[in-house]
Structures are given as C-alpha cells and as structure tokens.
Write a structure and sequence with these properties.
With 226 residues, this protein is mainly beta. The protein contains one helix and 23 strands. Strands 10-9-8-7-11-17-12-13 form an eight-stranded antiparallel sheet, with no helix packed on it. A six-stranded antiparallel sheet has the order 2-1-6-23-18-19, with no helix packed on it. The chain is elongated. It starts with a helix and ends with a strand.
C-alpha cells in the first residue's frame, strides 16, 4: 500500500496549527503575578482558574478573557458614569424604553444619559477635549453646538447661536447632552462598556441600574479593570 506523504505532511501541519492555537488561547489574570489559563469563576473574594489555581480578588488588577469579539449594534447610549450600551429606543404606552443588547428593556432617567448615538462613525469625537457638550453631530459630521430643546423618536431641536434648528433623527449621528467618565471598568465582547456598580457571583456578574439588577455571564466579558 502506497502512503501519500504529501497528505500526511498536510495533516500533520493542520494538527500542529490546531495545537498551537489551542495552547495560545488563554485568559490572563494580572496582579502581583500574571497567570494564564481559563477563568472558571469570579467571587467577591477570589478568581478561580480551571487549572486549580485561585487568586485573591483584592490583589487582581486586570482580567483579560481570550474570547472572540461579537459584532455590536451601531446605535446605543452612553451614561454619565461612562457605561455604554448598544441597543435601540422603542415607543411604548408608558413612554420610551431603551432595549439594550446586553440588559434587555430598561427605563432610563433623562438626567443619567450623557449621549445617544445612532451610528458609531463619530464616537471618537466624544473623547476630544475641544468638543464641549451639549451638541449634535449629523451623519455628515457637522457639529451643532447649543442647548438641546427636545429629542424624541422623530427629531431633535438644538438652540444654536444661529437660532433653533430641527434635525430629523435619520440625519443624526450623535446627540451629546453632557460629559461622561471615559475609562471603562468592564468591557464586554460586543463592545458594551459597564461602569455600573457590580458584584461578582461566580460565573456571572450582577450590575445595578436604577432599582434593578441584571446578571451578565462572565463568558460575555472581554476585559475587567479592577
């Protein structure tokens, strides 16, 4: 029987590549020491690895999960504490409800919202110190600075130095009401940023928003800064 050496070499190369990829995939826990492995759970006191090692949470500064990135929605909100949630607003009999990709339907207080974005094209501008809220950025990149007079699912009114301007929602990229905290505490795989009060519960993280609590699986997390 003849053995096709080319096929054997190809199969061997594939096995080696898979072995390398699997060995290189690992979560990283950084603190007094840097540990690689698979994070099994995070409690208020410790981080447990599947390999058997445990690290005191008080000594951990950063946890990076080696997980693939999930495509995020283009629209969402930024709260004043820096929390960024992708999703969309929906009109209901009780008023506007924000349907978060991560947390589901939530009622928000207007005073807690720093910005609403309808696409992510000009989000980097919000980090520009020269951009002082309140202002509106349209989809062409034009900035209209001034007091936000109203904003609903159809239009937004901006009182600029040139007078009142009404901008249709489909023409808006970002409405920025106030400044927000820029540094993320928890980065999710879908790009959402969580700066809310949190509690680790093993295989999930509980966050508080208003008078409600939401559980986020640690498998949905990309990075935690402690």
């Amino acid at each position: 029987m003849r053995v096709d050496t080319n096929k054997l070499m190809t199969a061997h190369a594939v096995v080696c590549l898979l072995s390398f990829c699997l060995s290189s995939m690992a979560d990283t826990v950084t603190g007094d020491e840097s540990v690689k492995g698979s994070v099994q759970s995070i409690s208020p006191t410790e981080v447990k690895m599947k390999e058997g090692k445990s690290l005191p949470l008080a000594k951990v500064k950063k946890i990076e999960f080696d997980s693939f990135v999930v495509a995020a929605k283009e629209s969402g909100i930024i709260l004043k504490d820096g929390t960024r949630l992708t999703g969309i607003f929906r009109e209901t009999p009780d008023g506007q409800v924000f349907r978060s990709t991560t947390l589901g339907p939530i009622k928000l207080k207007t005073e807690d919202i720093a910005a609403i974005f309808y696409d992510s094209t000009f989000l980097p501008r919000l980090s520009d110190k020269a951009s002082v809220p309140p202002f509106v950025i349209d989809r062409k990149g034009n900035t209209m600075a001034g007091k936000i007079m109203w904003s609903d699912t159809k239009s937004t009114g901006v009182k600029t130095s040139e007078g009142l301007k009404k901008v249709l929602i489909e023409d808006i990229s970002i409405i920025c009401y106030a400044a927000f905290k820029p540094a993320p505490a928890v980065l999710l795989r879908n790009g959402d940023i969580i700066n809310l009060g949190k509690e680790f519960k093993g295989e999930s993280m509980s966050v508080s928003l208003g008078d409600k609590k939401f559980d986020i699986p640690i498998k949905a997390i990309k990075e935690i800064i402690l």
